[in-house]
């Protein structure tokens, strides 16, 4: 995603990575990404999978890979489980933009 963040330019959104990993683990990853790409997304540690579950992205104590959109009030706009969303970045961006435009 980091190499494709510009594909969502012009949208009034904030992007986050949500993970079960600890804040320390995420800080290490975030530092590596910052070093590699010169920028990074913000990370949210969700060790109890509470937000992940709210987004419908939890099964048997594990988080699915995918992407979601949450509005400013915390309501889930949509959630997509997809292990290959990064490989299918054009489809991913198209879906995000489609859902975003529905909010206008």
UniProtKB/TrEMBL annotation:
KW Ribosomal protein (keyword) present: no
Molecular function as annotated in GO: antioxidant activity; oxidoreductase activity
Keywords assigned: Disulfide bond
Gene3D superfamilies: Glutaredoxin
Xref: Pfam families: AhpC-TSA
Residues annotated as domain Alkyl hydroperoxide reductase subunit C/ Thiol specific antioxidant: 2-77
The protein, known as: Redoxin domain-containing protein
Annotated organism of origin: Cytobacillus depressus
């Amino acid at each position: 995603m980091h190499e494709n963040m510009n594909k969502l330019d012009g949208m009034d959104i904030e992007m986050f990575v949500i993970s079960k990993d600890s804040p320390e683990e995420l800080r290490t990853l975030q530092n590596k990404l910052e070093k590699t790409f010169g920028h990074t997304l913000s990370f949210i540690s969700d060790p109890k999978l509470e937000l992940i579950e709210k987004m419908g992205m939890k099964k048997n104590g594990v988080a699915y890979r995918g992407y979601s959109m949450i509005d400013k009030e915390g309501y889930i706009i949509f959630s997509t489980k997809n292990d290959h969303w990064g490989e299918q970045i054009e489809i991913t961006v198209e879906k995000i933009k489609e859902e975003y435009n529905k909010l206008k």
